[in-house]
Amino acid sequence: METLNPEVVEDLRHGRATRERKLAVCTGGAHLAPADRAEILAILASDTDEMIATRASDAILSMPPESFVEAIKRENAQPALFVYASRNLADKPGICDALVQNKNCAAEYLVHIARHLSGVATQALMEDLDRVSASPALAAALEHSPSLTAEQKNHLHELHGPGHPIDEAALADAAAAAEPDAARRQTLIQRIATMTVAQRVQYAIKGASDARRTLIRDSNKVVQRAVLQSPRLTDQEVESFAAMSSLTDEILRLIAGNRAFRKNYTVVRNLINNPKTPLDVTLHILPILNAQDLKRLTTNKNVPETLRTTAMKLQRTRADQKR
Q1: If you average pLDDT over residues 105-122, what whole number do you get?
Q2: Of 116, 143, 159, which residue is a domain's last?
Q3: Structural domain contains residue 214
Q4: Does residue 307 form part of some domain?
């Protein structure tokens, strides 16, 4: 059995290999890791050479689903693998959930598998606002998923339904706080005012800083959550959001519940000093405060008395421990 070097494996994954190499993979004459062979066979199943495509399809029948699951989960998995798996392997254990887990798997490939998703995978996909908002077809397919809950169905309707008219006054206030330049602010307002909920979600995820700073104040909670999922979100923006008393309890709770955000001390301090942050959240993260900020908190009349009292007790405990 021939052992293939990494360069040849990459050629096979991208359809550049010779016919002999492709046939060797189909017949088992090439030594490959199970996940590599699974992915390459899925790619070869749509080869323009009919013999190779047929032999690859036949070889797949003897491959365990676990090999495909492992291949699908890899960050560099090829789109052709997603296509094949969604159309031909959706009923195999673990396949659909693996497709959802891989963020590089486009929404269009998930449409075919929505009805096969587990409850856990459905929840994970519902939380992935980028893919769900970008594809009305995926949202429609999810609606017919047996694992979809009534609450999740309401969220889909909120995302892709007609929605409520935008409060133009509230939008203007939000834009004024986010963009000091009058001309750019007016452009921002005009752009957002014509968007659907799904479009605002996409803008929150992929737009610039002024869009995120405006949409974090959106009246729709789905849009607000999308801002926190943006890969372009900066530490400074999260610090600013954590201090906003105009945000809902739910959004402040999401910020506090995000491990990456909590690693930023300024975010934690701002959350604790924000009167809108739920008390159970502030009490939980209170021990993170340093001595100086803890002392300031004890005299902060804007936060609940319970929080100030607990801060005083923590101060005394720390003082006793130093003795």
Answers
A1: 92
A2: 116
A3: no
A4: yes
Tokens of 47: 């080869």
Cα–Cα distance, 133 to 275 (Å, whole number): 32
Domain boundary among 116, 138, 171: 116
Is position 49 within any domain? yes
The CB-based long-range contact list for 185-190 (8 Å cut-off, 24+ gap) reads 188/214
pLDDT tens digits, 118-147: 999 999 999 999 999 999 899 989 988 898
Which residue range is the domain that position 100 belongs to?
2-116
pLDDT in tens, 276-299: 999 999 999 999 999 999 999 999
Out of 56-70, 72-86, 126-140, 247-261, least confident range: 126-140
86 in Cβ contact with 112 (< 8 Å): yes
Domain count across the chain: 2
Write down the pTM of the prediction.
0.78
Q: How far apart are CA 184 and CA 11, in angstroms?
A: 48
CA angle 69, 71, 73 (to 5 degrees): 70
Phi, psi of 2 (to 5 degrees): -80, 135
Give dist(CA 173, CA 182) in Å, integer: 12
